[in-house]
Amino acid sequence: MHWAHYRPSKKAVFWSLMLLSALAVFLPPRMTNVTKHATQLLTPLQDLAQFVTFQARIPGAPTTDPDDTPLARELASKSVQITQLRGELARMQTIRDLSIPAALQAHVVAWDIASMRDSAVIERGSELGVRSRDWVATHLVIDRGGATGIRSGEAVIAQETLLGRVELVSPYMSRVKLLSDLDSQPVEIRFVGLRGDEMRMLPTPATLHGLGRGQMIVRDVPYDLIDTGGNSTDGLRIRIGDLVTSAPDQIGLPVPLVIGRVVEIRKDPKERLVYDVIVESTAERDTIRFVHVIPLVPNAVAMD
Is the model's pTM score more than 0.85? Predict the structure, then answer.
């Protein structure tokens, strides 16, 4: 029979596709990343869907109000949106005033649907200056103090959180691998805790690894650095509730950024004298709409 007249059965097609899928799992990323760029064609639709979902979470006017009409709820929703946009504008003006033109604002258009991955897609790519391994943060920490008019007691944005690194760059979209992803590159960190009336950086260098499902872990912390009861007299031990920040000399970051908070301290059943410290991001995933991409900064510049 001539090959042009051959028609494979449905079962043969099915198993052929299954075999190709299994093969794709074991191929190196450099061979499969090219095919992933095709997903950038869906970015406008993903961005629209994410925007609609994000806006649906905004509470409207109280339903107990006698003037609670569809028009009133719509006006209340628009008012909240305007307030959010004004806040974003103020943050962008701050970034501009601090002379950080390379920090690029981006929308989160989708979160990874694979349960074993922790990543997000943003609507910025190589055409807009995003490169692989750039850092991504929800907001920037400003390096200004009393000399520039900052006073004690003034409000501080609560979501200055480092999320992860840019993993895959297409012309018009990029994929961000979160620090909580199992395959995320380890990050050198420091613990910061409230001791008395001041925040203190604990002299405990450590390495943070991704644990998956939104959590991170610092493994094999010596027992003498753990304060499980929260009543350490020296105040230099790690407690539940302490913050985790990137190390001051972290390569590629101009300033240390908050990564998460200690939520659990586990005793290692195999090692009696060490603990595992579990960390979760301080940023609530469902509330993240805007992020900033921070291009890599040479270590000599970051140390200045």
Answer: no
